[in-house]
Known about the structure:
Elements: E1 3-6, H1 8-15, H2 22-34, E2 38-42, H3 43-56, H4 61-72, E3 75-76, H5 80-92, H6 98-110, E4 113-116, E5 128-130
Parallel strand pairs: 1-2, 1-4, 2-3, 4-5
Amino acid sequence: MGAVVVDAxxxxxxxxxxxxxxxxxxxxxxxxxxxxxxxxxxASVLAESLVWTARDRPDRLADMVSRLTxxxxxxxxxxxxxxxxxxxxxxxxxxxxxPDALMxxxxxxxxxxxxxxxxxxRAVDPRVQVVGx
Length: 133
């Protein structure tokens, strides 16, 4: 049993039945649930995961927020500790984008496994577990 931060790539693959990573993501998330891991949903990941719904189905936005928070927990606030950890990560990895740095910083602060489908993030922190790799 442990904490698991989910990246937007994982959330989006889970939600999209046509996503090529969908089956692998569902297997990994199922294993997390069997172990009774606690999911951590960074607010930045929640925002990224809601963009399509906000753009194409704004009438369904509140439902999607409810669905995501029931699946992955309430959004983890980006507070000062997360911001500082994200800055440190970006300082050490110049190509790291801010959304990824914020998500990884939550993993650092929570000392959690970080699930992603982005293989580039493996080199940033040892907590990163790439789904399907």
